[in-house]
Design brief:
Two copies of one chain form a homodimer. Chain A has 304 residues and is of the alpha/beta class. The model of chain A has no long low-confidence stretch (mean pLDDT 96). The first copy, chain A, folds into two domains: 6-177, Rossmann fold (3-Layer(aba) Sandwich), CATH 3.40.50; 181-301, 6-phosphogluconate dehydrogenase C-terminal fold (Orthogonal Bundle). The first copy, chain A, has 13 helices and nine strands. The first copy, chain A, has a six-stranded parallel beta sheet with strand order 3-2-1-4-5-6. Chain A has a three-stranded mixed beta sheet with strand order 7-8-9, covered by helices on one side. In chain A, helix 7 crosses helix 9 (223-229) and helix 7 (179-206) crosses helix 11. The longest helix of chain A has 28 residues, at 179-206. At the A-B interface, helix 7, helix 8, helix 9, helix 10 and helix 11 of A face helix 7, helix 8, helix 9, helix 10 and helix 11 of B.
């Protein structure tokens, strides 16, 4: 058995991330039993067909009972009621964690329900695809990506270390930071990009003078890149924006200020400003590729 | 010899698109001689090492002399001086075309210099990668993509058909439309996405509270998708925005109006509006994949 082995882990929510954790935990033999729960009977049935959990439970209490690690993988808007439901069933000494894209709101919603003797350590794996549901998961999703842990004041150091080791076992690199800083970092690296992508796809959809058929046919000229993340799960993303309002509005304000400068440069024909702006952005792309966070292949290595 | 064979074609500008045309024309045996010219001696030398042209010419007049098809593949800001330089050397009956991302400005800049007896047919292949230069080209770049021809009033029908056949020989599907409509369609499918991508990468770069290292490490959460097109050639893109001002400002205005609605929804916690917006954008992604304009593989099929 590896040192990071658990007798039982419970995964609450069996979509893309929950199912990927199960696949990756199984790949690395991180648990004797992987128990799964989902609020949807349909999702539970589909999860049963793929069989990435050892046990599946319609009863959320039964899922978490005796688990040494419980991971919430539902949309963050559902966390409060989940926390209330599982609290009486959590084992003493268990680690309660999650995968939500916001962390301040998770601490606000879940924290008050965590029983004494349970280690609450919020977490967020920086990984995903544009697909949703139990069929979308796969074992290598976290390989080489980062997982961020945001311990709360008083979090037990040994429990934090155990959770770190677990995420490394899933294939991730691990960072630890304050929840407030996490929410600002993710506002710029993830939440704003999604909002912008959803928005531009909506704008294209609504133009009267250009048909949707034209947008689709000629999308390889840039637009299609945005449609991938704009195809992400709507419930998850609604909950992100409802729960990271302040940081999202802060970076969106900066984005709008910067865009106004580019808009003026276009209107005034200021080629030097445009050229300078378009030049300095190349270095960030190169750094992302050099650090293994994206492929160097042209067009992301697409096959079509 | 295929029916779409030319004795000589001349490619003016040997970057990503020019070199890809040469590779693809050679693959399909579309020309007995492919002549190449570039204003940069360094690019000419690098093109010579890869050897995708049959002849290379520092003298632009010698490159186009006797060519039945001349294709301008330089940044559109250089077209006017190129047109002046080649006009005296163009063969009677030749087709003069280009690959510029804007078409109204190309007609404005090149049209006045086209000699009688030369068929001027602007064109734009909807294909590319984030890489630039003669080493970036490859034969399959246009396969399955669209090329748009924007004939001018009085364009000869047989010459238009010949150019259509040429682009099909390169692997493209071909559409014909008015230059004004082209410029509006591309403003939303290509120019606005690039402006937005350049802008968000710039915003991330300038934030004081989030380091560039953090942006890079956690970029797999959405941001990295934008950095690809924000790594595109700065000269080319400066010229696009200087030469499609009106259409870009029109779609940017719509984008800003739509973004204000989403911004208000975030500020006011309007989850229903967010959910509805995030739901309808999925259909466009599906249509793009169904029509073969993008891959269905998660994360574009990236290997890292």
């Amino acid at each position: 058995m590896p040192e990071n082995h658990f007798d039982k882990i419970a995964i609450i929510g069996l979509g893309l991330i929950g199912s990927s954790i199960a696949h990756a935990a199984r790949r690395a033999h991180l648990a004797k039993e992987i128990a799964g729960h989902d609020a949807s009977a349909d999702v539970l049935e589909r999860a049963g067909k793929i069989s990435f959990c050892d046990t599946l439970h319609a009863d959320i209490g039964a899922a978490v009972k005796g688990a040494q690690l419980v991971i919430l993988c539902a949309p963050v808007g559902a966390y409060k009621s989940i926390a209330q439901a599982i609290a009486p069933h959590l084992a003493q000494g268990a680690i309660l964690s999650d995968v939500g894209s916001v962390k301040g709101a998770v601490i606000r919603d879940v924290g008050p329900f965590v029983p004494a003797g349970v280690h609450f350590i919020p977490a967020h794996p920086i990984a995903g695809t544009e697909y949703s549901g139990p069929e979308a998961g796969f074992a290598s999703l976290f390989d080489g990506r980062w997982a961020i842990l945001t311990p709360v004041p008083g979090s037990d150091g040994m429990a934090v270390d155990k959770l770190k080791t677990f995420w490394k076992g899933l294939g991730s690199q691990v960072d630890v930071m304050d929840s407030g800083h996490h929410d600002l970092v993710l506002a710029i690296t993830s939440h704003l990009p999604h909002l912008i992508a959803y928005n531009i796809v909506g704008t294209a959809h609504d133009l009267e003078k250009v048909t949707e058929g034209e947008v689709i046919k000629y999308s390889a000229s840039g637009f299609r890149d945005f449609t991938r993340i704009a195809a992400s799960d709507p419930t998850m993303w609604r909950d992100v924006f409802l729960n990271n309002r302040e940081a999202v509005l802060e970076v969106l304000g900066r984005f709008n200020d910067d865009l106004k400068i580019l808009q003026d440069a276009v209107a005034q024909g200021n080629g030097d400003l445009l050229f300078d702006t378009f030049t300095r952005t190349r270095a960030i792309r190169r750094a992302i590729v050099d650090l293994g966070q994206d492929t160097a292949a042209p067009n992301f290595g697409r096959k079509s």
